[in-house]
Design a protein that fits this description.
Order of helices and strands: EEEEEEEEEEEEE
Strand content: over 45%
CATH architecture: Sandwich
Number of domains: 1
Radius of gyration: 15 Å
Shape: globular
CATH topology: Jelly Rolls
Largest sheet: 9 strands, mixed
Length: 148
């Protein structure tokens, strides 16, 4: 991991949203920075639909493919049964509890500023309390892309 500006700003494309892979129910979010790319990461957001039994608490982690160097819980409290929560990690945010009710719940958490992720780095969740009724949607990553 390096911190921006590792290269000239002109070496980067403009900021954009990159849609991640939608995992199956009872599976974690996992997105690898593609070969030949650098991502200046500004925000990660993902919805989690929870059925009637588990109470998940997602933790966002970033690794270089081997070593975990960042973790941040998505909330100060577990997600209630029969709710949908939009989890968002971004610089300057303070970890919140679950805000809202039923299908309109939100939770916020911090992300370090200036994270420049190289090809092979992995952005993923590790969810305490995940189960058969836990279903993440496709994550979205707000990034500025560069080339390696």
């Amino acid at each position: 991991m390096t911190y921006f500006p590792a290269k000239r700003f002109s070496d980067y494309q403009s900021a954009k949203v990159v849609s991640g892979t939608n995992p199956a129910a009872n599976a974690e979010v996992s997105q690898t920075v593609p070969a030949g790319e650098l991502w200046l990461l500004f925000c990660v957001t993902v919805a989690c639909v929870q059925g009637g039994t588990q109470t998940p608490l997602p933790i966002l982690s970033i690794t270089d493919g081997t070593t975990k160097f960042f973790e941040s819980a998505g909330s100060t409290t577990v997600q209630a049964v029969s709710t949908t929560t939009q989890y968002t990690w971004a610089p300057g945010l303070v970890t919140s509890g679950q805000i809202g009710a039923t299908t309109n719940v939100h939770s916020f958490a911090p992300l370090p500023e200036g994270l420049l992720l190289e090809a092979g780095y992995v952005i993923a969740t590790t969810t305490i309390g995940i189960g058969a009724n836990t279903d993440y949607g496709a994550p979205a990553f707000f990034v500025v892309k560069g080339t390696a």
